[in-house]
Design brief:
The chain has 668 residues and is mainly alpha-helical. The protein folds into 2 domains: 285 residues, Growth Hormone, Chain: A (Up-down Bundle), CATH 1.20.1250; 188 residues, Up-down Bundle (Growth Hormone, Chain: A). 66% of the residues lie in helices and 1% in strands. The protein is built from 23 helices and 2 strands. It is found in: Membrane. Belongs to the major facilitator superfamily. Proton-dependent oligopeptide transporter (POT/PTR) (TC 2.A.17) family.
Length: 668
C-alpha cells in the first residue's frame, strides 16, 4: 500500500519500479525500490569492509567501526550493494582476528606480562567484546536502527586513526546523520587516541622494542590503565558493531522475493568466508610484522585499510535498505508478562484465538514489523492478548492500556525468544570446543617439532588450515552438498535445514576433539619426558595437527553459518540484531566456560601432588584426556540439542510464502 501511495504521488512509475515486500525503506524513509537498493552490491561492500576492519583491529582494534560506517553507506546501493557488504565483512575480520591473535604478544613483550596473565586478560577481553554485542543489538533494534548503530560503534572503534580528518569526513556527507556522528566523534575519539598515543609514546619504549629478542621496559600503572581503557573502548565499539553488520547485510535482500531470499541465505555463507579470509591476512602477513616488533607499521596498515573502508562505506549510503527501529523490546516483553499475570484468574475459551486481540498487518508494517501468526505453546502468555470487559471499556474510550492488553504479534515475539533459548544454550558447548583452537591447540603445537629444514613454523599460524578448510567447505556445501541434498529430498526445498546443519557441526566437532586427543597420545609417545624447558619436546611434526584444524573449520561452516541464518530467520523483524547478538554471546560464554572448565580440571587433576592434565610441561600431563572430555561433553550436548530441535516450532509470518515448506526447514 505504501508503495502504491508513493506511485500515486508521481514520484515513481507504477509497474516499472517495484517496492520490496518485507517492509524495508530507503534512506529517506520511503518504501525501498527493488532495482535501486540493496541486493549484492550492498552485500559485497559489507563483506569487504568487515574484512578490512578485522585487519585493523590487529593494530588498534579501533578501525573496525570506520569500516562498518563505510560498509553501511555503501551497502544500500543497488544490486551491487550487497557485494559491497561482503567486502566490508572481510576487512573487519582483518582487524578483529589481528587483535585476538597479537594482543597476547603485545601484553607479554610490551607490557611484560606472564603467559598465564596475558592469556587470561585476552580471554576476558574477547569475552567482553561479544558481551557488548548485546548493547549494540539493543540500541539498533530499539532506537537507532542498524545503519546508525553500525556507524556510531564503528567510529568508537576506528576513529583514532583519523583524529585529524574530521573536516574531510564532514565534507563527504552533509546529511543530518553524518553531522550527528561527527558530534559524537568529538566526544568519544579521546579514548581511542589514548590507545594510539599510549602505545607509541609510553608503552613501546625503548624505540624498536617489542620483538622476541628486545622486550620493552617497565611501565607505570597510569600508562597501563590508559591502555586498558582504550582497549575496552575498542571492545565496546567492535562488540556493538558486529551483530548489526551481519543483520544489516541480510536486510539488503527481500526474503519475500524467492530470488532475493535465496541470495540472503547465500549471504551468510560468504559473510563468514570473508571473516575468515580477513583473519588469514591477520594471522600471516600482519602477524609476521608484529612478531618482529614492527608495531608502528602494523598500526599504519590498519589505519590505511580503515580509511579505505570508510570511503567505501560512505559511497553507498543512499542505496541501503533499512528496517525501522521498533522501540524498546524489554518494555514490550515486560508488558506481555505483566498483562498475562494480571489475567491469570480468567478462564480462557477453548477456541481462544478468536477471542484474542490482534492488529491489522498494515498497522504492523507501519512500525517496520510484519504480523506474526498465533501459535500453540506457552498458552499462559496468550492471556496477555485475551480481551476482557475492562479492555472493551478502554477501547470505547479510544485508548488501550499496553500493560493490560497486548496484540498477538507482541505475545508471539516473547514466545519466539523463549523457543530460541534452548537452541542457543546448546551452542555454548560448541563454542568451548572452538576456543581451544586459539589456546590448547597452540600449546600442543609448541610442544611438537615446529621446524622444516631451517624454517620455524609459528604454532599459531596452523590456524591457517582452519581458514582454508572454512573456505573449502563453504564452496563445497553451496555448490555440491546443498544441491545434492535438495535432489535427494525431492521436496523442491533447499538442502539441509539450519537446525540440521548445526547438528552436523556438533558431530564434526566431536570428531575434531577425538582427532586432537589421538594426536596428543601419539605426540606423548615421541616426547622426551625429561625435557622441561626445551622448545621441541617431541619429535612428532606439528603438521599432525592439520586434521584437527581442518575438522574445526568444517564444523564452523555447518554450526556458525547455520547459526547466523537460523537466528536471523527465527527472530521477529524488530529483534533481528538481537538474533545475531545471540551468536556472538554464545562465543563469549564459550570463552568463559572454557576458562572455568580448565580451572576445574586442573584443580581436580592436581590433587595428591600430581602434575595435572594441562601442566606447564605438557609431556608430564594428559592433554589428551581433556580433549576426550570435551568430545564427551559435546556428545551429551548433541543429544540435548536434538531433543530441543525436535521440540522447536518456527516463527510464522503472515503472508510468508511456502509456509508448509518453511515448517519442514526447521525439523531435524
Amino acid at each position: 500500500m505504501a508503495c502504491l501511495e508513493v506511485c500515486k504521488e508521481g514520484k515513481f512509475k507504477e509497474g516499472r519500479e517495484e517496492c520490496t515486500l518485507d517492509g524495508t525503506v530507503d534512506w529517506h524513509g520511503r518504501p525501498a525500490i527493488k532495482d535501486k537498493s540493496g541486493q549484492w552490491f550492498a552485500g559485497i561492500i559489507i563483506l569487504f569492509l568487515e574484512k578490512m576492519i578485522c585487519k585493523e583491529r590487529v593494530r588498534r582494534s579501533i578501525e573496525k567501526k570506520d569500516k562498518c560506517w563505510a560498509l553501511w553507506l555503501h551497502a544500500g546501493a543497488n544490486k551491487r550493494a550487497n557485494h559491497q557488504n561482503r567486502v566490508n565483512q572481510g576487512l573487519a575480520t582483518l582487524a578483529f582476528f589481528g587483535v585476538g591473535v597479537n594482543l597476547v604478544l603485545f601484553l607479554t613483550r610490551v607490557l611484560q606480562q606472564s603467559n598465564a596473565d596475558a592469556a587470561n586478560n585476552v580471554s576476558k577481553w574477547t569475552g567482553t567484546v561479544y558481551i557488548f554485542s548485546l548493547v549494540g543489538a539493543f540500541l539498533s533494534d530499539s532506537y537507532w536502527g542498524r545503519y546508525k548503530t553500525c556507524a556510531i560503534f564503528q567510529v568508537i572503534f576506528v576513529i583514532v586513526s583519523y583524529f585529524d580528518s574530521e573536516s574531510s569526513l564532514y565534507n563527504l556527507h552533509s546529511s543530518i546523520a553524518c553531522i550527528f556522528l561527527l558530534k559524537i566523534y568529538r566526544k568519544i575519539c579521546t579514548g581511542l587516541v589514548i590507545l594510539s598515543l599510549s602505545s607509541y609514546l609510553f608503552l613501546i619504549r625503548p624505540k624498536g622494542c617489542g620483538n622476541e629478542l628486545t622486550p620493552c621496559g617497565s611501565h607505570s600503572s597510569m600508562e597501563v590503565s590508559l591502555f586498558y581503557l582504550s582497549i575496552y573502548l575498542v571492545a565496546l565499539g567492535n562488540g556493538g558493531y558486529q551483530p548489526n553488520i551481519a543483520t544489516f547485510g541480510a536486510d539488503q535482500f527481500d526474503e519475500e522475493d524467492p530470488r532475493e531470499g535465496h541470495s540472503k541465505v547465500a549471504f551468510f555463507s560468504y559473510f563468514y568466508l570473508a571473516l575468515n579470509l580477513g583473519s588469514l591476512f591477520s594471522n600471516t602477513i600482519l602477524g609476521y610484522f608484529e612478531d618482529e616488533g614492527i608495531w608502528a607499521l602494523g598500526f599504519w596498515a590498519s589505519a590505511g585499510s580503515a580509511f579505505a573502508a570508510l570511503v567505501l562505506f560512505l559511497g553507498g549510503t543512499s542505496r541501503y535498505r533499512h528496517f525501522k527501529p521498533s522501540g524498546n523490546p524489554l518494555s514490550r516483553f515486560c508488558q506481555v508478562i505483566v498483562a498475562a499475570v494480571k489475567k491469570w484468574r480468567f478462564e480462557m475459551p477453548r477456541d481462544g484465538e478468536e477471542e484474542l486481540y490482534n492488529v491489522h498487518a498494515k498497522d504492523c508494517s507501519m512500525n517496520g514489523n510484519r504480523k506474526i501468526l498465533h501459535t500453540d505453546g506457552f498458552k499462559f502468555l496468550d492471556r496477555a492478548a485475551f480481551i476482557t470487559s475492562r479492555d472493551i471499556d478502554d477501547q470505547k474510550k479510544g485508548c488501550r492500556n499496553p500493560w493490560h492488553l497486548c496484540p498477538i504479534t507482541q505475545v508471539e515475539e516473547v514466545k519466539c525468544i523463549l523457543r530460541l533459548l534452548p537452541i542457543w544454550l546448546c551452542t555454548i558447548i560448541y563454542s568451548v570446543v572452538f576456543t581451544q583452537m586459539a589456546s590448547l591447540f597452540v600449546e600442543q603445537g609448541a610442544a611438537m617439532k615446529t621446524t622444516v629444514s631451517n624454517f620455524k613454523i609459528p604454532p599459531a599460524s596452523m590456524s591457517s588450515f582452519d581458514i582454508v578448510s572454512v573456505a573449502f567447505f563453504i564452496f563445497l556445501y553451496r555448490r555440491v552438498l546443498d544441491p545434492l541434498v535438495s535432489r535427494v529430498k525431492k521436496t523442491g526445498s533447499r538442502g539441509l535445514t539450519e537446525l540440521q546443519r548445526m547438528g552436523v557441526g556438533l558431530v564434526i566437532a566431536i570428531v575434531a576433539m577425538i582427532s586432537a586427543g589421538l594426536v596428543e597420545c601419539h605426540r606423548l609417545k615421541y616426547a622426551r619426558k625429561d625435557c622441561t624447558h626445551c622448545e621441541g619436546s617431541s619429535s612428532l611434526s606439528i603438521f599432525w595437527q592439520v586434521p584437527q584444524y581442518a575438522l574445526i573449520g568444517a564444523s564452523e561452516v555447518f554450526m556458525y553459518v547455520g547459526q547466523l541464518e537460523f537466528f536471523n530467520a527465527q527472530t521477529p523483524d524488530g529483534l533481528k540484531s538481537f538474533g545475531s547478538a545471540l551468536c556472538m554471546t554464545s562465543i563469549s560464554l564459550g570463552n568463559y566456560v572454557s576458562s572455568l572448565l580448565v580451572t576445574m580440571v586442573m584443580k581436580i587433576s592436581t590433587e595428591d601432588h600430581m602434575p595435572g592434565w594441562i601442566p606447564g610441561n605438557l609431556n608430564k600431563g594428559h592433554l589428551d584426556r581433556f580433549y576426550f572430555l570435551l568430545a564427551t561433553l559435546t556428545t551429551i550436548d548433541l543429544v540435548v540439542y536434538m531433543t530441543c530441535a525436535r521440540w522447536y516450532k518456527s516463527i510464522q509470518l503472515e503472508g510468508k510464502r511456502d509456509l508448509t515448506d518453511q515448517e519442514d526447514n526447521f525439523r531435524v
